[in-house]
Specification:
The protein is of the alpha+beta class and 704 residues long. Strands 7-6-10-8-9 form a five-stranded mixed sheet, covered by helices on one side. Strands 12-11-15-13-14 form a five-stranded mixed sheet, covered by helices on one side. The longest helix has 24 residues. It starts with a helix and ends with a helix.
Length: 704
């Protein structure tokens, strides 16, 4: 019994396994034309898509071709991995799969671009023909051929186009060949067939009685003659005239007699008497329109910078704007402010079209027959020829502007407009002293100096600008260069706008100065004091006081206190002198120095102020030397009490540090540090030494 149950269970498992496999869809297999994705992390050459060629192979980097057609994805990965294992080691993360299923079909025959086409999976006959550029005119659509594995299937593609039933079309597979045959009706010689051109040559090419129409018509040819046919009818059958036709000079030959036909006159009047009578075999020629001189009693001429210059037929009531609009209007190069109206009697009248559009001019010029309108070309600021702008409407801008030159002037402009038109001042332009030379109309000129910086900073209105007129000259000076580098430029700077700085500065010289600058500004412009400058004794010589005045500045004290009142007011014409620290003695008066003499390392004259003491003086003199007798330093005061001398014991001061015992010193005093040989104890010891030596000598002589 158990054996029976076991056999029944085993048969059931086999049945379930078979049923499951039968119900699963078949696995996709690689076919020719498919796109295979091969991806291996870290390998740049194995991160790409590969096409399956006609031989069913893909080409792998480093290992070459491998046949993959007919394999499932699992088999594909196994085969590729095995092939790559020859050149690569770690293939655990290799990914190989069918990225896109495609169909490779060969389309031949009567198509625009025969050859191989690559289609997406599921694409049919129509997509294959479209990829081949479509069928050509004359293809036999009811007998297309599908060739596969040596067999051929003929199907009716025309029936599919008529009904849209896909059952008329066979499915496509890779390596199929689709052949489109040609219809036997096209003959053995291939020609370009276009039914639309059947009537281009007319309808009576072989008829001697036909009327020939050629020239500037759209469809020249021979047309059958019919009684009472008009020339206009024949022109219409020839497709009408072209845009280049000279309709006023149409040639007609009737019975060997040439005549001229003016189609424009006929269309203007509608009078049938102007139509020539045509006979069989007539010839009609429409010539090309040629340039010809137009003139007449009602002609108006428009010349210059308009889109369509030429002669125009005038009529009663036509205004200046009507005529200008018929000429296409001014171009972008037109100078609409300087239009000239040349009347038939020789008079010339200017007209400002721009002013008319702005409402500044309210009347248009009257145009009569024979008049000419001339629209001149706009002057280019880069144009080298000055002859295009007459002197009575030009101004000249020279100096430090971006584009100096001669510019056309209009009364609506002002100085700011002109400077802007010249590109504006350059970076080195002296915008505080712009010179404007204005003619007065009587042969004289008036010079005005304009301060552009002040005008902008103060926010003045345009009424404060100099009044410019034609013939004005505007000169913009340049600022002076570094006076230490180019002293030849100084002559271009007036002295009443300069300030002088001399002595121990980085760049002494003459500098441009204005009222907005201060003492520190001009000192910084001169690169500041040098390392050898005596900033405690700066002198400023003022020249605008009406009398000589010199101000002494202690710049060091200013830096210590920050008190701006210590700095003097500077104006143009002043001179600043910064002396040297180590000046020769002749440059220093005895009343302004203190003399340090005697046993010091650097005896000499030293500058002194009230913040200093005798200790500062001795330190500045290098200190006392080894032979100095510092217990009896002498200070001679001549600044407050004449002929008075005081002694100072430096040794005692070092022991007590009593600053009240320091002597008072002022400019003009003398400090003397005696040598120890000059001291009383030293001289007493020397005297005793002399006595002892004499006694010793006498004793020695007595013994002898």
């Amino acid at each position: 019994m158990l054996r029976f149950i076991y056999q029944t269970f085993y048969i059931s498992l086999l049945f379930i396994s078979y049923w499951t496999q039968a119900s699963d869809p078949p696995l996709p297999k690689v076919q020719v034309g498919d796109l295979i994705a091969v991806y291996l992390p870290g390998e740049e050459h194995l991160q790409q898509n590969l096409n399956v060629d006609r031989q069913g192979r893909i080409t792998l980097p480093e290992v070459g071709a491998v046949t993959v057609v007919g394999l499932t994805e699992a088999e594909l990965k196994s085969r590729v991995k095995k092939k790559l294992s020859v050149a690569f080691r770690d293939l655990d993360h290799l990914s190989v799969y069918i990225k896109e299923t495609r169909v490779l079909v060969q389309v031949l025959g009567y198509v625009a671009q025969p050859g191989q086409v690559l289609l997406h999976a599921g694409a049919g006959i129509q997509m294959a023909l479209r990829q081949a550029g479509g069928v050509r005119s004359g293809a036999q659509l009811d007998k297309l051929q599908l060739r596969r594995d040596g067999s051929m299937q003929v199907f009716n593609y025309k029936a599919y186009l008529d009904s849209g039933e896909e059952s008329h079309l066979p499915p496509l597979r890779s390596l199929d060949t689709l052949f489109v045959p040609a219809s036997p009706m096209i003959g053995n010689i291939e020609v370009e067939f276009d039914a639309a051109k059947m009537t281009d040559a007319g309808d009576a090419a072989e008829d001697r009685n036909a009327v020939k129409v050629f020239g500037e018509v759209n469809s020249p040819g021979s047309f059958s003659y019919k009684p009472n046919i008009s020339l206009v009818d024949l022109l219409m059958r020839a497709g009408g005239v072209t845009r280049y036709a000279g309709v006023e000079q149409i040639r007609v030959i009737n019975n060997g007699q040439p005549t001229l036909f003016n189609l424009k006159r006929y269309l203007d009047t509608g009078d049938a008497k102007f139509l020539p009578t045509l006979s069989s075999g007539a010839t009609i020629f429409v010539p090309m329109q040629e340039e010809e001189i137009k003139s007449g009693a009602n002609t108006v001429y428009v010349m210059g910078e308009v889109f369509k210059p030429g002669a125009f037929e005038g009529k009663a009531g036509a205004t200046f704007m009507d005529i200008l609009a018929n000429a296409g209007g001014p171009t972008r190069f037109a100078e609409s402010r300087q239009i000239r109206i040349i009347h038939a009697n020789g008079k010339v009248r200017p007209f400002d079209l721009a002013a008319y559009t702005e409402g500044l001019v309210t009347t248009l010029p009257n145009i009569r027959a024979g008049d000419a309108i001339f629209v001149p070309e706009k002057t280019d600021i880069n144009e080298k020829s000055w002859l295009k702008v007459s002197p009575n409407r030009a101004v000249r801008v020279i100096g430090e502007v971006v584009r100096p030159g001669r510019f056309e002037w209009a009364d609506e402009m002002n100085l700011m407009d002109l400077l802007a038109h010249a590109g504006g001042p350059k970076g080195r332009a002296d915008t505080e002293n712009i010179e404007v030379l204005i003619p007065d109309g009587a042969g004289n000129n008036r010079m005005v100096v304009f301060n552009l910086d002040k005008f902008i900073k103060q926010g003045y209105s345009d009424n404060r600008l100099p009044k410019i007129r034609a013939g004005t000259v505007i000169r913009v000076h340049d600022l002076p260069q570094d006076p230490s580098d180019n002293k030849a430029q100084w002559v271009r700077q007036s002295s009443d706008k300069s300030i002088y700085i001399l002595g121990q500065v980085g760049a002494p010289g003459r500098y441009r100065f204005n009222n907005d600058m201060t003492f520190l500004d001009i000192l910084a412009a001169a690169d500041g004091p040098t390392g050898n400058a005596d900033i405690h004794n700066i002198r400023v010589s003022h020249s605008n006081k009406g009398h000589a005045q010199v101000t002494k500045i202690d710049l060091g004290l200013y830096f210590e206190t920050g008190d701006g009142q210590l700095l003097p007011d500077i104006s143009t014409g002043d001179t600043i002198y910064i002396p040297e620290k180590d000046r020769i003695w002749l440059n220093e008066s005895k009343e302004n120095t203190v003399r340090v003499l005697g046993a010091v390392n650097r005896p000499g004259r030293y500058r002194f102020n009230d913040s200093m003491t005798i200790l500062d003086l001795l330190a500045e003199a290098g200190g006392t030397n080894a032979e100095a007798y510092v217990s009896n330093i002498t200070v001679v005061n001549v600044s407050c009490c004449k002929d008075q001398a005081r002694s100072f014991d430096l040794t005692k001061f070092t022991k007590t540090a009593d600053f009240s015992s320091l002597p008072v010193i002022r400019n003009g005093d003398t400090v003397y540090v005696p040598d120890r040989k000059d001291s009383t104890p030293y001289q007493a010891r020397e005297a005793l030494s002399d006595i002892f030596r004499l006694v010793s000598l006498a004793a020695l002589l007595g013994l002898i």
